[in-house]
Design goal:
The complex is a heterodimer of chains A (206) and B (257). Chain A has 206 residues and is an alpha+beta fold. Chain A has 7 helices and 5 strands; from the N terminus they run ααααααβββββα. The chains are: A alpha+beta (206), B mainly alpha (257).
Chain lengths: 206, 257
């Protein structure tokens, strides 16, 4: 039963991406992925009991394909991005991706019966940059806003920013990234990110 | 007015912050954070206080009390706060929201048994988040410098003044019966802390530098709150970002596999 639900969800998600001709609207995309991921978490005892490893697998498989990490990294670096060589940009993107995925995955393990409301979504035919707004309702708390910024690329809509309660998970890094660049250049920032990711790797295995 | 404990503490906190401001301390070039040296020291003090006292108490509280009781406590204080959330909505020229806040207070105080339950939310009266700092922001008062206050944590100069007003009118801090007042004040601090225990791990893991992660998060959050969730878009460093947008295609495709 669980297998079929997963299979169905997987197929319905793969179809638009695989065929490529038919494009999923950004609000539908956000809704499909959210619904699918939450369905899986509700059934997955490992994630509920805090398994970061399982959560990361889920995020890698279901969520990452819809994110544009190069754009996210550029946004986080702001004007420092132009100081980086293409190779450095690639390494920065890899490291920032690792950091965000782990953070996001861990947030998922804290999931408890929240429900998601999708706010009315409107877009003009030619729009290539939109925001899909949602409210997360939690028992006994006020709703938290969770907004996704998406841009239209050749392969469809890709998320490039996630804003929780008005705080962008991407641009919130900008000041600390530029401080790192001021102190140690782009390579200094890369080293700090690598050190951060390594230290969290260690703590996750414990 | 009674110089209650909380007021004394807040005066001390604000005075300490003012001293830091005058001192001018070490700056590292962030325009929003001209007294970063002082702020980092105060941040360290607050972290220490949290680690040794507040967090352990909040963890105990969370371990002992069943979830519905904790929710009742959250609702109780949330209901009291609705009164001045309504006043602030009125001051911000939002009478519809203000009436809704008043309605919430009436319904939750009666039907919701002194605010322990929140039937108003189920009836469609949405909970708002307002304070005097936001009201001043709405009136056009700028942030001013970022300050970390002892005990109260991150603020801006504007929000520090706002905090003074919030405390001055706070129904809990103004209760005459001292033991009741102190019990409620402590319970509120512990309950508030217990509600965000889960966020600790996420912040630890997300932040390259916890101090600036919290600072920038606070500033973004306040900006969003002042505009009720719809802040004007910040000027982006577009040239760089456009390049990023172009270069993405192969990577995004790679991630999809």
């Amino acid at each position: 039963m669980k297998f079929f639900a997963l299979l169905l969800a997987g197929v319905s998600l793969l179809l638009p991406a695989g065929v490529g001709a038919q494009e999923t609207a950004p609000d539908v995309l956000v809704k499909n992925v959210t619904t699918e991921v939450l369905d899986i978490i509700r059934k997955d005892k490992d994630i509920q009991s805090g398994s970061t490893k399982r959560a990361i697998e889920l995020v890698e498989q279901k969520v990452l394909p819809h994110f544009n990490f190069t754009r996210m990294t550029a946004l986080a670096l702001g004007k420092e991005w132009r100081k980086a060589t293409p190779d450095q940009q690639k390494v920065l993107t890899e490291e920032f991706r690792t950091l965000l995925v782990r953070t996001y995955s861990n947030a998922l393990t804290a999931y408890k019966n929240q429900s998601v409301d999708y706010l009315p979504f409107r877009m003009q035919p030619g729009d290539a940059d939109v925001t899909v707004r949602t409210h997360i309702h939690q028992p006994g708390g006020k709703p938290i806003t969770l907004d996704y910024s998406l841009e239209k690329l050749a392969q469809g809509w890709k998320v490039y920013d996630v804003v929780v309660g008005g705080v962008s998970l991407v641009t919130n890094y900008r000041e600390s990234f530029s401080a790192e660049v001021r102190n140690g250049g782009i390579d200094g920032l890369i080293k700090s990110l690598q050190a951060k990711n390594r230290s969290m790797d260690g703590s996750a295995r414990k | 007015m009674k110089a209650t404990l909380i007021k004394r503490i807040s005066i001390l906190a604000i005075a300490a912050a003012a001293t830091g401001l005058l001192g001018g301390c070490a700056t590292t070039g962030n325009q929003k954070d001209p007294v970063e040296g002082f702020n980092r020291a105060m941040f360290g003090f607050n972290e220490g206080l949290d680690k040794v006292v507040i967090k352990p108490v909040a963890q105990g509280y969370e371990a002992v009390l069943p979830r519905p009781v904790q929710t009742g406590v959250v609702n109780f204080f949330s209901n009291i706060a609705d009164v001045f959330i309504g006043v602030n909505n009125l001051l911000q020229g939002k009478p519809v929201e203000a009436v809704s806040d008043g309605g919430r207070f009436l319904i939750n105080t009666t039907v919701g048994i002194l605010g322990i339950f929140d039937p108003a939310s189920h009836m469609g009266l949405e909970k708002h988040d307002e304070d005097f700092g936001q009201t001043f922001g709405r009136w056009g008062v700028g942030d001013g410098a970022y300050i970390v206050l002892p005990f109260f944590g991150p603020r801006t100069v504007r929000d520090t003044v706002g905090l003074g007003f919030d405390i001055y009118v706070d129904p809990v801090a103004n209760i005459d019966h001292v033991p009741t007042r102190n019990t409620l004040l402590v319970t509120r601090v512990v309950s508030d802390r217990a509600e965000v225990l889960k966020a600790d791990k996420i912040i630890e893991e997300a932040a390259l530098d916890k101090y600036s992660y919290i600072r920038d998060g606070y500033l973004q959050r306040r900006r969003s709150l002042i505009h009720d969730g719809n802040p004007p878009r910040e000027k982006d460093e577009s040239a760089a970002e456009e390049e990023g947008g172009q270069a993405v295609a192969p990577l995004a495709a790679g991630a999809a596999q």
